[in-house]
Specification:
By secondary structure, the chain is mainly beta. It has strands at about 5, 10, 20-25, 35-40, 45-50, 55-60, 65-70, 75-80, 90-95, 105-110.
Length: about 110
Amino acid sequence: QVQLVESGGGLVQPGGSLRLSCAASGIIFSLTTTGWYRQAPGKQRELVASITSGGSTNYADSVKGRFTISRDNAKNTVYLQMKSLKPEDTAVYYCNAQYWGQGTQVTVSS
């Protein structure tokens, strides 16, 4: 049974930072492409960043230079480091590697 569990979300002020984690069981991240998505209220879910099995990364234009996706193969965990956060980054963030996690809420507000 595959399970993806996101953590690390919360309330942060504009300009602040957060690091999201996605831990997996039943699937090996290093063998597949993993993506971080987000969905804001009233909007469609969008891809924020992805990392391939080979370690290549890709980012949405809106987060380039601010977000970094990485993977720890020993821990079978994928991270999303988010810096210089903006109110428009507020959303539920989901991890996906053929399966979806439950999501973690990120709120950027003063």
